[in-house]
Amino acid sequence: QGNLNQLAKAAGKLYFGSATDNSELSDSAYVNVLKNKDEFGQITPGNTQKWQYTEPSNGVFDYTQGDVITNFAEANGQILRCHNLVWHNQLPSWVSSGSWTAAQLTDVINAHIASEVGHYKGQCYAWDVVNEALNDDGTFRADVFYNVLGTSYLPIAFKAAAAADPDARLYYNDYNIEYSGAKATAALNIVKTIQAAGAPIHGVGFQGHFIVGGTPSQTDLTNVLNSFVALDVDVAYTELDVRFSSLPANAAGYAQQANDYGAVVGACLAVSRCVGITVWDFDDKYSWIPSTFSGQGEACLYWQNLTAKPAYYKVQSLL
Ligand code: XIL
């Protein structure tokens, strides 16, 4: 019984939240669920704060679409996790294909972050400052940032974000770091690198894009969270969904999915510095999974018709 955000807060968390996207806000049945801050006390813009939207060409900034989501959250009394500043994907080609010197790309990063974080100053509880810097084997992704600047782009980005909004909680965010292994170890090293450079980092976001039956155990999830907390950072699940790798799903599958969501909720509850959980949308109708992972889906807490799955009731019962 009870609404998810209210239950999460009663359990000592800051929020239970959801991502959303601009096109979804014209669906009134969906919006009626999303806008209830007792259910979703936190919103993440799923796309429109990304670089391709906010600085489509050099020095040309556009926050009109991002503002639609941030205004929605504020109107409904919901906390904002802002997403994201430096990422290899959804990055305009003027950045990714530019032939930059280190000094030039540093200026580009600084100008982008000063403008965007400055625009949203005071509105973002947290910023995903750097997203997905790592390959799955724990090496650095050879994107334009790493190729030109090496790991120095990490503290550059975090310092710029702190300068533009000293009150925002600054996060490193990635996937496949939720369980122990080379990538989680590499993410721990990212935190240490940023700290050693004298830049602020306040949290690590664990995206949590899992597969039914393949979700890490609650014990492993908890141990990994604790290994980050030992570096004195907050932790959060920032993009949780648990997809079926083949469809259609059956009753046993929905029960497994419920247990998988439950492992993640249990891990966050077990770690006091796990501040909250964000689902990467709550309704299968708007899940990013089918368009990215062909043939996969049904990853969300609600079916397309906005009725709650067993996973929803599992999350509710654990919170
Ligand atoms: C996804 C969006 O949900 C999609 O609409 C878009 O086409 C691609 O990006 N990791 C992230 C998110 O950090 O920004 C991604 O969002 C999903 C994976």
Automatic annotation (TrEMBL):
Q: Where in the cell is it found?
A: Secreted
Organism domain of life: Eukaryota
Species of origin: Coniochaeta pulveracea
**Presence of the UniProt keyword Cell inner membrane in the record:** no
Please give the name of this protein. Answer: Beta-xylanase
List its EC numbers.
3.2.1.8
Q: Which GO terms describe its biological process?
A: xylan catabolic process
Keywords from the named record: Carbohydrate metabolism, Glycosidase, Hydrolase, Polysaccharide degradation, Secreted, Signal, Xylan degradation
| GO terms for cellular component | extracellular region
Pathway noted in the entry? Glycan degradation; xylan degradation
Reactions the enzyme catalyzes: Endohydrolysis of (1->4)-beta-D-xylosidic linkages in xylans
Q: Covered range within the whole protein?
A: 21 to 339 of 429
Belongs to which family? Belongs to the glycosyl hydrolase 10 (cellulase F) family.
Ranges of residues in domain GH10: 1-318
Any one GO molecular-function label of the UniProt entry = cellulose binding
**EC class:** hydrolase
